[in-house]
Amino acid sequence: MASPSDLTDSAPALSVAGPKTPGRAPGQGADDVPRIVPRRNIGRLLAAAVALSLFALLVDSVVRNQAFQWGVVGGYFTSAAVLDGLLLTLWLTGVVMVLGFLLGIPLAVMRLSANPVLSSLSWGYVWVFRSTPLLVQLLLWFNIGALYPTLGLGIPFGPQFVTVKTVNLLGPALTAVIGLTLHEAAYAAEVVRGGILSVDAGQTEAAQGLGIGRSRALRRIVVPQAMRSIVPTAGNMLIGTLKGTSIVSVLAVHDLLYSVQLVYNQTYQVIPLLLVATLWYIAVTTVLSVGQFYVERHYARGAARALPPTPVRRLRTRLAAHRHSLRSLSNY
What we know:
two-stranded antiparallel ribbon, 3% strand, 14 helices
């Protein structure tokens, strides 16, 4: 009978090997580990080189072309007439956006109402003002005195208690505010309605199950969640309204474009003055776009675990990736 000691002595010796290092062949040292080199994308490099070359040609043609008259552009960029027109443009944009959404929110709620009268009236308003060009609407409001010489308040089909002449009531600036606001309200109503419909119906049902009223559920539960869909479109509307205010120049409202036109009608320097207006529109639009990004980021807190990176952080990440790629290529 074999004893345990005999079994132990006859068993083959087992060699204990340490864990194998990935990417290292047997017999290789620590310094012989193969280095991973990123694959070179020649097509991407060529496309970038061509794009940069075309961009450089464009910049060279703009800088060296004397017809742009950049000295004149710099001289009029901060002139009093241009800044006054810019302030009126900003004021008109802010007023129209605020009034447009104040009117558009009730229209959206009416459109979603179970009352067929309210829903039909809201649909008809949106249909009329979305179907008519903005310039036509402004011209109609500017010539409203031809249709209604006087406006009055009284009993329908009865006597009027207060009357006022339209020509004394509506000036160019007020006409521009009314026309732009009514036009903007139609689009704001659709934006708000789309945002409300984007919220799952279970949210409203859960609120009703908890005994929360319909108006309170809409104000405290539905609208905050709908803002994620409303803010991007509203930001685009704000930028569109900023540029759309230039159309009020046909009513002789002294906005940015009309102020520039008054200057180049006297100096005949059309291109430089139009460039002044263009640069101001680009600058204001850039500021509004940055603000829109941070507002969207604010309302994305409840929908995303990680907030989208800011432009500065995104730029740092790209620069770090480019430095890493260049370092890898130089080592190779």
